[in-house]
Amino acid sequence: MTSMTYGAWGRAGLLLVWCMSFDAHASAEDIGAQVTVEHRAEAADAYDQGTSAYLNGEYEKAAQWFERAFRLVPTSAALVQAIRSYSKAGNAIQAANLGLVLKQEYPKDTRALKTARAAIRTAEAQAVKVVTRCDRECTLELDGALIENQSFFVSPDVDHSIKAGFDTGEASSMVRGEAGSTKHVSLAAPLPPPPPPVPRWAFFSSLGATAALGAITIWSGLDANRGVDAFEAAARTANSPGINDNGSPSPADQAEALLTDGQQKERRTNILIGLTAGMAAGTAVMGIFTNWKNESREPTARRIEPAVGVTNRGGAVKLKGRF
Questions:
Q1: CA 303, CA 230: separation in Å to the nearest integer?
Q2: Tens of pLDDT along the chain (323 residues)?
Q3: Helices and strands in the chain, H and E counts
Q4: Residue 222: which residues within 8 A CB-CB, separation 6 or more?
Q5: Closest CA relative to residue 281, chosen from 312, 310, 315
Q6: How many angstroms separate the CA atoms of 177 and 160, rounded?
Q7: Which residues are bridge partners to 96 per DSSP?
Q8: Cα–Cα distance between 200 and 65 in angstroms, integer?
């Protein structure tokens, strides 16, 4: 009977500590808006299960329940209890790893930090501390399991696999060390895969586009030249007052209109000439790098990526690749 009373009071006490920590360290902005009522109920049940297991001496099981409570509703109290449980179970490495999480998430919770620092000091003498660094944003895996912190502890004298996932692929490394040592691991994002080789149809399509642009350019040039005689004739009579009884334009007005029209046609022709020249150059280079034999290209093989566009100064062509 006494044992049952002690267990009930112990559970109530630990739950009270959790609730007090929840109120002190979780604001409505940080948690209330993100955690549903169902999650709160599940977290409370997980914490109660962890408390029962802890009081029954099942420390490893208790730690797992406390970790579940933390995942559902993040609080420093749940982490503290998980750290204590792992320490009681003799799992100093996991206790220290949770201590690193606690230090990162609750740097101002001085009471909880004491527990975290104690667990970390124990692991620093018994395990290997690994400090990883990714040159870009990445997700980390340790021996096939996802981890959140870039610093963590692993067991000594054992090979451990570290994998980093980037948006361009994965990078991996192995780490091994003696108890009490610190290992630094740098992981670089792989280069993006090379673009596919230029297919034949792309070359012939570019060739056809070049021919079409050339034809349009020739038409534009002829069209611009057709207006020269009319403009010169209008310019010769520009000083004549003309007859303007019905509101028709004067010779000077006609000459001005023809000049404006001719300038627009000339500008259009110049743009088309630039585009045609750029497209012709791109097509020529593309012909050199076209995959005529349907061969696969290695990342180090020659490749070309042409691009053609229009700017406020005329046409533009850009060639990018490896030569």
A1: 51
A2: 334 443 444 444 444 444 444 444 444 344 444 668 888 999 999 999 999 999 999 999 999 999 999 999 999 999 999 999 999 999 999 999 999 999 999 999 999 999 999 999 999 999 999 999 999 999 999 999 999 889 999 999 999 999 999 998 999 999 999 999 999 999 999 988 766 666 777 767 777 888 887 888 887 777 767 655 555 555 555 555 555 555 566 666 665 666 676 667 778 778 888 888 887 877 777 776 676 666 555 544 555 555 545 455 555 555 555 54
A3: 9, 9
A4: none
A5: 315
A6: 10
A7: none
A8: 62
Alpha-carbon separation of residue 105 from 76, 82, 102, 116 (angstroms): 8, 15, 5, 12
Instruction: Find the helix packing angle between 59-72 and 37-55, rounded to 10°.
Output: 170
CA-CA distance, 170 to 151, in Å (whole number)?
19
For residue 226, give the amino acid letter: R
3-class secondary-structure state, position 152: strand
Check: CB of residue 21 under 8 Å from CB of residue 77: yes
- How far CA 178 is from CA of 89, 92, 130, in Å, comes to 23, 16, 11
SS3 179: coil
Hey, what amino acid is at 290?
T
In angstroms, rounded to a whole number, what is the distance separating the alpha carbons of residues 137 and 133? 10
131: left (phi over 0), alpha (psi -120 to 50) or beta: beta
- Using an 8 Å Cβ cutoff, are 85 and 62 in contact? yes
- Check if the beta carbon of residue 291 is closer than 8 Å to that of residue 197: yes
Reference 122, options 84, 158, 148, 149; nearest CA is 84
Q: Which residue type sits at 238?
A: A
